[in-house]
Specification:
Elements (H helix, E strand, L loop, with lengths): L4 H14 L25 E7 L8 E7 L10 E7 L13 E4 L4 E6 L4 E6 L4 E6 L4 E7 L2 E7 H4 L4 E4 L1 E5 L15 H4 E4 L9 E4 L4 E6 L2 E6 L4 E6 L11 E8 L3 E8 L4 E7 L6 E6 L9 E6 L4 E7 L7 E7 L4 E8 L2 E8 L1
Antiparallel strand pairs: 1-2, 1-25, 2-3, 4-5, 5-6, 6-7, 8-9, 9-11, 10-12, 13-14, 14-15, 15-16, 17-18, 18-19, 19-20, 21-22, 22-23, 23-24
């Protein structure tokens, strides 16, 4: 996911400094830099796009781009999928995943109750029907999981048993029996909101899953079937409204997320310690982010956080950002003239 020699050299130097370098799915430590995950790092960005035209057979185009310094006018066409679904304004949150080994991309469209796959090796895609109370598919330890939210996907406020975590077959969107997490671990006080449309997820690539919705951060250990909850902003209220979106994992920073504070017209990327929920600012985002129609992905090798966000206004456009978390600056912005979502890093 880098194209320029200077960026590659910087990424290798960064790897040497931090001793290990990984994206969500490149996470092995190796003293031999020739075999490290960042050696010859050369991933592209896969992006899905569709037109909001109320077509009941919406078409999803799959394009890849050379990055960093992505050029929205230079897509590499990977293929397309004609669906049996009207996808106009039916695509909430950052709910995609990608399997490097199989080349399979999947995206869960919660509102529509659909799951779409696309194989980047064969250029073919499929559509499946899924329950509407599951969200945020994520891979850890070679297995995929989703979170199932109580009350048909929209958890009640207050203290309750709010969720379960289920193995997820990313080939066809089916789930199997929930992990046997004790109810005491899945019961917490939902002080803000906790639902499928605002859920995003990340993993440490080994044994932990992380889910965030509103100000609720959930950590799930799939090795011992335990989970914990942290309220990232206990003073949340209708007059002090805060939400965290776009959850990603970094070996260098911990968890990364966008902290959105609409009451004061402020948003920023923060790093979060998942053990205690303490967060600190990395950089401010100077423009509005659509907290419903967006997608994110993170490259540990490039220390770059990537974001797409549906622009406000009557014309459907998508803003694209590359955030350099070493320089703590925006290194690139682009505009797409349709809805772009489901971004993932691919070889």
């Amino acid at each position: 996911m880098k194209t320029f020699l200077s960026i590659f050299s910087f990424a290798v130097l960064t790897c040497l400094i931090f001793t290990s370098c990984s994206s969500d799915d490149d996470s092995t430590i190796n003293d031999d830099t020739n075999n490290s995950p960042c050696f010859n790092y050369n991933k592209n960005l896969l992006a899905l796009n569709t037109v909001f035209d109320n077509n009941v057979n919406a078409v999803i185009d799959y394009n890849s781009f050379l990055i960093n310094d992505l050029d929205s006018s230079a897509p590499i066409f990977e293929g397309s999928l004609t669906t049996n679904t009207n996808l106009t304004y039916q695509l909430p949150t950052s709910t995609s995943l990608y399997n490097d080994n199989s080349g399979l991309h999947g995206i869960l469209v919660t509102r529509a109750g659909k799951y779409f796959t696309f194989n980047t090796n064969t250029g073919t895609g499929q559509e499946f029907t899924t329950p509407s109370n599951i969200a945020a598919p994520i891979i850890v330890g070679g297995e995929s999981y989703v979170i199932e939210v109580s009350n048909s996907g929209y958890a009640n406020s207050g203290t309750d048993n709010h969720f379960s975590v289920k193995p997820f077959n990313m080939n066809n969107g089916t789930t199997s029996t929930a992990l046997t997490i004790p109810a005491i671990n899945t019961t917490f006080n939902n002080n803000s909101f906790f639902h499928v449309e605002s859920m995003s997820a990340a993993s440490n690539g080994v044994n932990e899953l992380y889910f965030v919705s509103g100000t609720n951060l959930i950590t799930v250990n799939v090795s011992n079937n335990t989970s914990s909850h942290v309220d990232l902003y206990p003073s949340f209220s209708n007059t002090d409204f805060v939400r965290f979106i776009g959850l990603e994992y970094s070996k260098s920073f911990g968890l990364l997320a966008i902290m959105d504070m609409p009451d004061i017209n402020s948003r920023k990327i923060v790093k979060i310690d998942p053990t205690n929920g303490i967060y600190s600012d990395l950089l401010s985002i100077p423009t509005n982010i659509n907290t419903e129609f967006y997608s994110t992905v993170y490259s540990e090798c490039n220390k770059t956080y990537y974001l797409t966000s549906l622009a406000n206004g009557n014309t459907v456009q998508t803003n694209y950002f590359e955030f350099d978390l070493v320089a703590n600056s925006i290194s690139n912005t682009q505009v797409f003239n349709d809805y772009v979502f489901g971004i993932e890093l691919i070889d």
